[in-house]
Amino acid sequence: MFTIKPVLIHIISWCIGFGLTFAVTSHSSVSVNYGIISGWWVACYFGYILNVRAKSVPFAYIVFVFLFIILYVNEVFSFHDMGNEIDIFMVVIVLSQGIVFISPILVNEITRIIENKCITNRST
């Protein structure tokens, strides 16, 4: 069973990292890229210290896809690679970006597994 708290921590971390970096680098043509990288690292950091586990991945993925489509359809943002209508190309972009969105959780889970194995090996 999962709760909404880890998913909210993940989403808020992404938003803080992206938003602050985008605001600071808004003069740059690559501010969105910097924001995505920073958002990823902030989500990775807070996800690790606040113990966001892999069981929250499916719900986080669904929330991301849902919010992305809602914001895109309401023209809150748009991407130069996407058309004006929902087609298979847009679906592939959304699904692949969803994987990037949830990847900090997965990296943290792999890190925890490696950490536990190292602690176990060190204690024997």
Explained architecture:
By secondary structure, the protein is mostly helical. The protein has four helices and no strands. Helix 1 (4-24) packs across helix 3, helix 2 runs parallel beside helix 4 (88-123) and helix 3 runs antiparallel to helix 4 (88-123). 20% of the residues are buried. The model has no long low-confidence stretch (mean pLDDT 87).
Give descriptors for this structure.
single chain, 124 residues, mainly alpha, 4 helices
Question: Can you lay out the helices and strands and say which pair or pack?
Answer:
Layout lengths: L3 H21 L6 H19 L7 H17 L14 H36 L1
Helix pairs in contact: 1-2, 1-3, 2-4, 3-4
For the largest beta-sheet, the strand count, sense and barrel status come to: none
Number of helices: 4
Intertermini distance = 33 Å
- Mean pLDDT across the residues is 87
Our Rg estimate from Cα atoms comes to 17 Å
Which range does the strand content fall in? under 5%
| Tally of DSSP β-strands | 0
Which regions have little confidence, pLDDT < 50, spanning 5+ residues?
A: none
Order of helices and strands: HHHH
Helix/strand structural class: mainly alpha
- The level of helicity is over 70%
Shape: globular
